[in-house]
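hiii so um. not sure if this is the right channel but i have a protein structure encoded as tokens and i wanna go backwards to a sequence. like what aa goes where. can anyone help
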């Protein structure tokens, strides 16, 4: 593990709660539903754990000193630290990882969790992305 991969204890604690919540939602609902359903249920699951979560959080894009109104939204922002990008797709395209990295960069965050709920085993559908 390189130096850039080291996160503070609080971010790791939040990430552990997020991952656990993802497991609970997936084991309860299973694969095959719409992304919006998983988003709503994951939001409820994380809030029930006392986590502060923003849904469809607007990420400002500043280009040459100007705010570009591009409507970029992150699915979930947990405790102002962890970005959670949700998918419910047959195949995870590499662009989803690139997209999550860009969200982290633009938002000034270090940890993203990319999750695809449309898998038999949720551990196979999760990816940690650290900047």
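sure thing!! here u go:
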């Amino acid at each position: 593990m390189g130096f850039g991969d080291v996160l503070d204890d609080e971010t790791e604690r939040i990430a552990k709660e997020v991952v656990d919540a993802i497991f609970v939602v997936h084991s309860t609902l299973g694969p095959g539903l719409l992304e919006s359903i998983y988003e709503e249920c994951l939001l409820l699951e994380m809030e029930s754990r006392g986590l502060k979560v923003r849904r469809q959080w607007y990420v400002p894009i500043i280009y040459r000193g100007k705010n570009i109104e591009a409507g970029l939204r992150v699915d979930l922002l947990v405790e102002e630290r962890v970005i959670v990008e949700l998918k419910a797709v047959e195949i995870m395209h590499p662009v989803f990882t690139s997209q999550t990295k860009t969200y982290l960069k633009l938002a000034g965050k270090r940890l993203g969790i990319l999750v695809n709920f449309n898998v038999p085993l949720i551990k196979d559908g999760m990816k940690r992305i650290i900047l």
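oh and Residues 9-29 form the longest helix (21 residues).
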